[in-house]
Amino acid sequence: MANKKYRQPDPNNMPKNHGGPPSGPGSHGFRKPKNAKKTLKRLGFYIGKSKGKLIIVFLLMALSSVSMLVASYFLKPLINNYILPGNFAGLARALVFLSAIALIGAAATYLQNKLMIGIAQRTTNTMRKDLFAKMQTLPLRYFDNHTHGELMSRFTNDMDNIYMALEQSLVQLFSSAVLFVGTIILMLVLSPLLFIITAVLLVVMMLISKTLGGKSRIHFQQQQSNLGILNGFIEESIEGIKEVKVFNHEQQMREEFYELNNNYRNSSIKASIYAGVIMPIMGNLNNISYAATAVFGGVLTVMGRFDIGSLAAFLQFSRQAGQPISQITAQLNNVFAALAGAERIFEVMDEEPETDLGQIRLIELNCEQQERSWAWSDGQTQTPLLGNVRFNNVNFSYDDKVSVLQDISLYAKPGQKIAFVGSTGAGKTTITNLLNRFYEIQEGQITYDGIDIRQIKKDDLRHSLGMVLQDTHLFTDTVMDNIRYGRLDASDEDCIAAARAAGADGFIRRLPQGYQTLLRGDGANLSQGQRQLLAIARVYVSDPPVMILDEATSSIDTRTEHLIEQGMDGLMEGRTVFVIAHRLSTIRNSKAIIVLEHGQIIERGNHQELLEHQGRYYQLYTGQHELE
Amino acid sequence: MIKKFYPFIKEYKKYLILGPLCVLIEVIAELLMPYLMSKIVDIGIPALDNGYILHIGIIMAVLAIIAIAFGCANMFFSSKSSMGFGANLRRAIFDKVQDFSFANIDKFSTASLVTRLTNDVYQIQSTIMLTLRLMVRAPLMFICALVLTLSINARLASIICISIPILLLAVYLILRRAYGLFQTMQQKLDNLNGKVQENLIGIRVVKSFVREDYEKDKFQQANNALMRAGLRAAGLVIILFPIMMLILNGTTIATIWVGGNMVGVGSMGTGELISFVSYIFQILISLMMISFVFMMLARSKASAIRIIEVLDTLPDIVEQQQTQVPVDNKERGKIEFRNVSFKYNRNSDNYVINNINFTARSGEVIAIVGATGSGKTTLVNLIPRLYDVSEGQILLNGMDIREYPLATLRQQIGMVLQKNVLFSGTIRENLLWGNQEANDEVISMAAQAAQAEEFINSFPGGYDSELGQSGVNLSGGQKQRLCIARAMLKDPAVLILDDSTSAVDSATEANLRESFHEDFKDTTVIIIAQRISSIVEADKILVLDDGRLVGFGNHQQLLTENQIYREIYNSQQEVIA
């Protein structure tokens, strides 16, 4: 899960906040929303898409709340007008009326819930969709600086919190408010005098709930931050479990885990106690209010200033009066968690996407013919795509501080094979990452058939470049579909032919279901070398005019490599190819070999020239063979 | 299932008894309220006795305060025991995973183990807390209220006997279906998360093939599937609440009708009727709580099963708890494979390693070459018992590796895996994994030998530079060299390097080989490598083909005798010549 592979070598600029583990998936990150109003507004925009439904929900909610209030209030006429005088016909009529109200209340509740679930599901569905779409547009720089866990938890916990708040808290808050106001009004109608008692207790309850709610939120935050640390540790230690075992490190890991686990337990006990005691305290304060009402209502009735029916109804209300307060206290926690989650989601959505101002498109010519050919088009004129790549005085830095590439100038003519050589961290991969605009250069210019690559539409630029990356990644899908990833309209035959050329056909056929074998977990059931063969087949299918092979065969044994050489030659024929390889034998036949050191080109020439030059390449080359 | 989880809460047995006791007192105090109120209405008011009314009122207030005290106490007990339970459970799973073999880990996959340790435990912990708070309270409230209604008016109470079965039936029918729906929802959620994760890992592939729209489509499929599953599950559950409300209100109305008639004929007091209605409310509320808990239980059943799966898994690799290990330094690092065969899946007949025999003497350098997928990595993984052999045996210092305690065995073996993992913390902390007691000098020596000191010192913080999660700010070659230094610090009897210099350039690799020779004279070194140049001077070279040993000897011997080796060699020479 943690991104181990794609971090750029960037030793001089270590992030400053990496000490603490990030909150991974499962961590319920919690913090006070910074700008609640703005976040609420944007969240409102998403919910607003179901505005009509939402209005109906609130109407239904009001209806069911009112029906509850009416039913309680109805106790008064029930007792005073029918039961006490013994008017049974009237009682029957009244009860039928009450039944109708109950039915309406239940129906309204059901409909409202049903609609609200729909709204909540649709809202989070849209948000997830937008977030994912946004994620696809983010520049690689973003992924370099954020852990996978961070982004994952946007999709999991943050979305969950929003869903919960929408599904429950929103309506609960609203209905609590309606009930609260309605109860107070009806109590005032029944007896303003008795209401004074209830009011005093309500104020006490509100104060207590505010204090306890605030306390519980503080502990809740502490708990969430401890949980984040704990989950971060779990994620890291489980991801590295094989390392732990090889180094007999189980005991140390256990001890560290126990400590974090205990920290989390202790803070969560506190948070849960504070949140928990609100219930009995509020419930029983309500009971005290109930008792006080019974006493004073009784006394008033004795004095003849109140009647039994009103007392019964008032008692019913005083029972309900406290509930909205504890409800609101409980729901506010959810709302805050949801706002914090929404804020984090919007933060990602506000990230700058990859810039793409390119106007020039890639178009395919003569589709009917066997040979595919391409052209650049700016809408009016067409220039045939040749594969002429040129770097002019390119400077680049990942962080605007430490320069990674300095003054790189090079060219590759159509059909030429250009190799990059140099020690680890010299900038070889970086150069290729600039060509497909994974990163943007700060100075200089890269041209493609004479066109500045920044003028080419990014998608089209990348379509024209086939890449086999240093780290192979496969998707959860069949082997066939993983190969087809290179060109979605490729037929099964095309894919199999590509696999043959890449030397992958043999092992694929030995898999349990051959080409239909499902790969899981980034192709965990394959060896590194087999994965590389699949990656080569994948790019073979895509048939691009220009290719970049970054250590494409590093985990493939040389004999297999030799076997697929023909296929590789076929793949490279007629194309401009950039190759990075440690095994110098694979690049000997390159048109030009470029030797990089510390981000600068220190030598260039073909194999023979470089050997005669007796410089760095000579050292590297002979170093490889010094023992023979 | 309860039996399985009980041990983790056993520590809090005391609280499990005290908690319900507190709840009992709280519930009784609470339930006496309506009863006492009925006394005010039926006795105090008609008698115009203010003193009596006040007297009852004070009792009610005292009861409320008692209820608050015991209610809070119960919150304390339930919080402590459920959170404690969660911590114990998490710890048990973590411990279990530490004992897992590689085969066990492969079976679950690390991502799924992480989810089980985080989300699944969280889910169960919350359910337990709710259960502790409600599962005692609700039945107690139910019983007490029932007893009180019966004592007020047994005939009227018979109405409840009709509504309760209806309610229970409705709850049962709904929950029975809900479990399946929740499970489906969980699966869809797993799918969606998998999709996101995959895209995060493979973002460069997606971008370089311009497959953003394709991935968005696939994600949206998973997203919609999750929404549909969510709508189905939630759509079912929301039926429950209106049904309960209807039954509650229906019962109340029926009670008022029958009770009202009784009041009319004078066989029941008005206050009694009012309190009776209150109790019906309590009874049905308690049943709602119970069904709510059952719903939570249904929801967390899936999590519980996933956790039990982990807890019930027996580690494949079993330690034989015995024997003092003979420290035989004469034969330090001697390895012998005797008819070793191995397959990943016990039931398949597809051997990955097939009847391998060879001996590596102390201090020798053994190289393994072979085609992609020929079993090189698998073979070396058998030595520290990351996997156990299926047939045959492996001996280290003349003793079967299964007879060593695991810690002793692995202590003797330094290993650099193909996929390297570093941990967050400083470079020094990471290196100390090899040897906790190593001082600066020793660390620096190992780093030098691994060709890592130069770049470590180029960092502003030197050895104290922080690495991000998994060493995110190092290049591939730098990571490999740190891992080699870490393994070297162990001063192992056997050092295994699984293609661990693939990202290191040739010159650095040559230096590395040099230091192996100088500093590890009495260490048996096993190297997997692609480049023949890396292994020509090895004492012995194993040639593997499809899991079989097809060649064994030194470079010269193999060149003349072994066809496959010659092919490998030639494949690297032709271009050079």
List the helices and strands and how they pair.
The complex is a heterodimer of chains A (628) and B (577).
Chain A: H1 36-48, H2 51-73, H3 75-83, H4 88-137, H5 140-145, H6 148-190, H7 192-239, H8 241-246, H9 250-302, H10 308-321, H11 323-349, E1 361-365, E2 373-377, E3 382-384, E4 389-397, E5 403-412, E6 417-422, H12 428-435, E7 443-448, E8 451-452, H13 458-463, E9 465-468, E10 477-478, H14 479-484, H15 492-501, H16 505-510, E11 518-519, H17 528-542, E12 546-550, H18 558-563, H19 565-572, E13 576-580, E14 592-597, E15 600-605, H20 607-613, H21 616-625
Parallel strand pairs in A: 6-13, 6-14, 9-12, 12-13
Antiparallel strand pairs in A: 1-2, 2-3, 4-5, 4-7, 7-8, 10-11, 14-15
Chain B: H1 2-9, H2 13-44, H3 50-99, H4 102-108, H5 110-134, H6 137-152, H7 154-201, H8 203-208, H9 212-265, H10 270-312, E1 335-342, E2 353-360, E3 365-370, H11 376-382, E4 391-396, E5 399-400, H12 406-411, E6 413-416, E7 425-426, H13 427-432, H14 440-449, H15 453-458, E8 466-467, H16 476-488, E9 494-498, H17 506-519, E10 524-528, E11 540-545, E12 548-553, H18 555-561, H19 563-573
